[in-house]
Amino acid sequence: MSTPDENTKSRCPRCGELSAPGARFCEQCGFELRGRPTAEEILGAPPTEPIPVVTVEDPDPDSSVTPPPAPLSERDHFTEKPSSWVAGVCDRGVRHARNEDAMALAATGTGSAGGTAVLVVCDGVSSAPNSDVASLAAARVARDALVTFDPAGSLPVRGEVERRVADWTQAMVAASRQAGDAVVRTGDEIAREATASGQRGGIEVDPPACTFAAAVVDAGVVVAGWLGDSRVYWLPDDGTAQQLSVDDSWAQEMMAAGFTREEAEHSPQAHAITRWLGRSAPDHDAHCAAMLPEVPGWVLVCSDGLWNYCSEAEHVADLVHRLSGVTTDPSETAAALVLWANAAGGRDNITVALARVEPEPETAA
């Protein structure tokens, strides 16, 4: 395949980075290079406020929405549905050559009232080789650690909620540590194999690394854990949506310093993370948060391939409600969200994991 002539590329007016022909977003700083697609182009899905419909004359309308490339392997696009109320989709996206996102899901029971769900999403750091291998190992190790955990106490009735939350919080931190160890082991094994085969030639390379985001839904309790900028949201059918996680990123530091979310998330270093899993990480202890859903809704765990285009919790909730319609099938909704993100640009890998929460009236009370 020939290399496109540089004169045909788009130069970002914000940071000066050259982008591939037809690109609508700058890969360096995320600045929008071209007009947004119309609602019809976004697979018939109405856009949310962060992605408004804009009428722009496009000299090449056929390329304004690039369809996802055909998967080259199972790793490029895969779906998991361990139960009727838990499912997820992990996709390579439009612009990347490989899928460095990963997810691992598990669930018991036929619903959230009597079952337990584990959702783990890890996003491999693109600048470090073999992060796709490490992210998948981390997600599966964390899932298995959470699945085998047995919290003390019975269902969280009066006086036992705090104990259940504390147990799952400890389990979440332990799972993130095990996931971090898996990333380190993966990097060490790959390095040993490369050295033994003479592939490295004495050249030092960065060890693999990834983000971590996970949620446990258990008997009316939701516990979230994270390192990096993959996110956990609570999206009720009726009420205020919440981003349960708080990004470990440069953008979050900017918002803490007083910048607006739009300014921070479109800055050149917006996606520089301050915590991660890997050998170079200062620690592998997840930050955690918990809540008790009182109304039906969705627990969403996702990579930045989705929230790049829809960040605010209320906007994410609106998007999910529009795409899901009347269905409560998490696999259909997850697939629709991935297609929507690809149609909006697909400039990163996309992972969407969902658990449908429908608390029993007495549990919510």
UniProtKB/TrEMBL annotation:
CDD domains recorded: PP2Cc
InterPro entries from the UniProt entry: PPM-type-like_dom_sf, PPM-type_phosphatase-like_dom
PROSITE patterns tied to this protein: PPM_2 (PS51746)
One Pfam family, short name: PP2C_2
Upper lineage: Bacteria, Bacillati, Actinomycetota, Actinomycetes, Micrococcales
Listed name of the protein: Zinc-ribbon domain-containing protein
Disordered, as annotated region: 40-78
Superkingdom of the organism of origin: Bacteria
Gene3D superfamilies given in the database record: PPM-type phosphatase domain
PPM-type phosphatase domain span: 83-357
